[in-house]
Design brief:
This protein is mainly alpha-helical. The chain has one domain. It contains ten helices and four strands. A two-stranded antiparallel sheet has the order 1-2. Strand 3 and strand 4 form a beta hairpin. Helix 4 crosses helix 5. The protein starts with a helix and ends with a helix.
Length: 307
């Protein structure tokens, strides 16, 4: 039982390796570092969401699906509509504070580590950019390629958006937030939702879902630790990928984007990549990598693949 408890604690704090004490790798994997590092991202997403949804008469509002899920959950728990807007960022901070307390690690944040963390996240995002180009560039002489693969941009973002009041509950496709969207607003919406996805999708699909699956497989079913880890990662990655195509929001089933095997396969591999990164580098670096991937993907699409 002692060994199982240790596994559970290590996984919950998202650091599976014991780095040298007070080294860069050890410091930046702390939950308190995740709070300090992601705070500008959280503020940017909150302000950016207000800017891209300034028209109260516009029926389409662009938001990250995982953010909307947290809002809906908090409303069901009794929070008011106004508080539900600010509550998701507070949930992120409270969870990370709890993990920091459980880890019993030092609380200080070295400001000099911020820039290296940014460069690390950008560097870790580059392999995903290359993988996306490999998966989603149109193959030659393939009869099984769907029209979405050929028409879509070669670089696939990992941000699922939701249109709060659109017909049939359909979600807004990244880069197509609504019929009245301008290219500039569309680009801004993609950047904002990319940052939000980095925070809230990692919170839901890595920090929360993987830990819940681990408790189910390891503590309830009695599965071995390694098997539980592998199965939890695979399931969370598949669900992460699926929610970019089919979503459940406000009691309605909607479609976020046309399904294609290449995009589904890429996002599943991306989910596995983020899960491994989360296990070894913690929540801050993982969320930052996800956010920078979506930002870079948006920039590459706008510069090289815009139609």
């Amino acid at each position: 039982m002692a060994g199982r408890k240790n596994h559970k604690k290590d996984y919950a704090t998202a650091q599976l390796l014991n780095y040298a004490r007070d080294s860069y790798l050890e410091r930046t994997s702390r939950p308190v570092y995740a709070i300090a590092f992601l705070l500008p991202f959280i503020v940017f997403y909150e302000l950016g969401t207000m800017l891209i949804n300034t028209d109260v008469l516009n029926q389409v509002q662009v938001r990250v699906v995982a953010f909307v899920w947290l809002q809906n959950l908090l409303r069901h728990l009794g929070t008011g509509a106004r508080f539900a807007w600010i509550a998701p960022p507070m949930v992120v901070v409270v969870i990370l504070i709890g993990l920091q307390i459980a880890s019993r690690k030092q609380w200080y944040f070295c400001l000099g580590d911020y820039t290296p963390m940014v460069f690390e996240c950008v560097s870790l995002a580059v392999p995903l950019i290359l993988l996306s180009l490999l998966f989603n560039s149109p193959p030659v002489n393939s009869d099984n390629v769907s029209r979405a693969d050929i028409a879509g941009p070669p670089v696939v973002t990992c941000a699922a958006q939701q249109s709060g009041c659109s017909p049939a509950g359909e979600a807004a496709v990244p880069g197509h937030a609504g019929a009245q969207s301008t290219p500039r607003r569309s680009l801004m919406a993609d950047v904002v939702t990319g940052v939000g996805a980095g925070i809230y999708e990692e919170l839901v699909f890595r920090l929360i879902l993987i830990c819940v699956l681990m408790m189910v497989f390891q503590d309830l079913i009695g599965m071995g630790h390694q098997n539980a880890v592998v199965l939890s990662i695979l399931i969370s990655a598949a669900l992460f990928s699926a929610h970019h195509h089919i979503i459940w929001v406000d009691g309605q089933l909607g479609r976020s984007a046309p399904f294609s095997w290449s995009e589904f396969g890429f996002r599943t591999l991306a989910g596995i990549y983020f899960a491994i990164l989360f296990a070894f580098r913690g929540f801050g670096i993982t969320a930052g990598t996800h956010a920078f991937y979506d930002i870079i993907a948006t920039a590459v699409n706008a510069l090289f693949f815009a139609r």
